[in-house]
Amino acid sequence: MKFLTFKGGIHPPEFKEPTAHLPIEKAWEPKTVSIPLQQHIGAPCEAIVKVGDRVTVGQKIGEAKGFVSANVHSSVSGDVKKIEPRPAAGGGDVLSVIIESDGLNEIDPSIKPKAPIEELSSKDIIEIIKEAGIVGMGGAAFPTHVKLSPPPEKKIDTIILNGAECEPYLTADHRLMLESPEDIIYGLRAMMKAVNVEKAYIGIEKNKPDAIEAMKKAAANNSNIEVIGLETKYPQGAEKQLIWACTNREVPSGGLPMEVGVIVNNVGTAAQVAKTLKTGLPLIDRITTISGKGIKTPKNLLLKIGVLLSEIIEQCDGYNGEPAKIILGGPMMGLAQYTDEVSLTKGSSGILVFTEEEAKFPDEKPCIRCGKCVEICPAYLQPLHISNFSRNNMMEHAEKYRALDCIECGSCSFICPSKIPLLQAIRLSKRYIIAKKRKQDK
């Protein structure tokens, strides 16, 4: 098999060994869940339950109030105890529905299996996905029904599933491809019908040969679905880089994948589509990797949305000493948390607990103009210049150097011999530029 890739990128240590060979375990039933009403890109949901209500598994408790938004459902049955702001994975507080489980796991009466794909129309599939609150489960949490509803003038001819899982430590998608490959194919077929495309690719890095074989076997009867082997390189799973590797199409600066006729989704998203069609259940749980030297027993767990990180870590036999850093997601693009009283959300692909040794960041030194950050940037940017402009509050210059094209992969910060936090400065410039544009639009 020929392994494809993109120009640039880095090769960080993988650190996948602790969990790569561990089967997915079903987690303990939580006694209480705190379910944020915004755990997706876009507008927050509006609570449609009130304190004192009894809810059931799969019942809608938060309704999307915008096109780019996603419904939220209860992951347990029990009583709504509070609706209040709680610490959120992305920082700050988010209005959350706190439910005390009754331990019965009573399924909502509205939950019923859907018709087979062949009996569903494109519109039916998109509406089912929308109602189920399905979002990108690789971490971005972009509402899936929006991705599957491109403007009429944008002709989509290809869907790509991201099975690269290029972030160090994370193995949730790897295990999913090994344990439920048929569901991934079923969900992919549904998405293909939703946007009326005849061709699909599943991209998987070559450090997962068992997953490549499992997915090839599952797709054997579908001649229009091709499993693509990818070089092991970060950020191989980024949308634009994955599109280039699989199709040789280049998404233009400032453009979206649909500009080149492609939609990209995660393998976890496809599996959830299959689960929703087969059982009727919305997105109420997900597979998450819990790893790092700060965890006593690393695991891949099937967890209910809304369970607190502290409870999850307890299921992994607790902390291994005093944690120095807790990260939701992977070490490259994940977000550090200031408390373990944060809830698991739809996009939480990993929980990493680092010791002082792992978390320590070297002292910053002056830039030596080596050009390594430019050489490896997968977006063909000049990170050192954008970072300098940002640090000197010269945001207009940062914009001219295409700061908004940064995919925030962190490769530049990783490769920098002077250990300059380039990504953090670029992120700051992006936030400033976006805020300025929104102000101008208003």
From TrEMBL:
Upper taxonomic lineage: Bacteria, Bacillati, Bacillota, Clostridia, Peptostreptococcales
Known cofactor(s): [4Fe-4S] cluster
Protein task: Part of a membrane-bound complex that couples electron transfer with translocation of ions across the membrane.
UniProt keyword terms in alphabetical order: 4Fe-4S, Cell membrane, Electron transport, Iron, Iron-sulfur, Membrane, Metal-binding, Repeat, Translocase, Transport
Cofactor binding notes: Binds 2 [4Fe-4S] clusters per subunit.
Principal localisation: membrane
HAMAP family in UniProt: RsxC_RnfC
Binding residues for [4Fe-4S] cluster 1: C367, C370, C373, C416
Membrane topology reported for the UniProt record: Peripheral membrane protein
Coiled coil in keyword set: no
Protein's UniProt keywords contain Mitochondrion: no
Pfam family, one: SLBB
A molecular function GO annotation: 4 iron, 4 sulfur cluster binding
One CC-aspect GO term: plasma membrane
Any one Gene Ontology BP term: electron transport chain
Subcellular location: Cell membrane
Name of the protein: Ion-translocating oxidoreductase complex subunit C
Subunit structure: The complex is composed of six subunits: RnfA, RnfB, RnfC, RnfD, RnfE and RnfG.
Occurrences of domain 4Fe-4S ferredoxin-type (ranges): 357-389, 397-426
EC numbers: 7.-.-.-
Broad class of enzyme this protein falls into: translocase
Residues annotated as binding [4Fe-4S] cluster 2: C377, C406, C409, C412
Family, similarity comment: Belongs to the 4Fe4S bacterial-type ferredoxin family. RnfC subfamily.
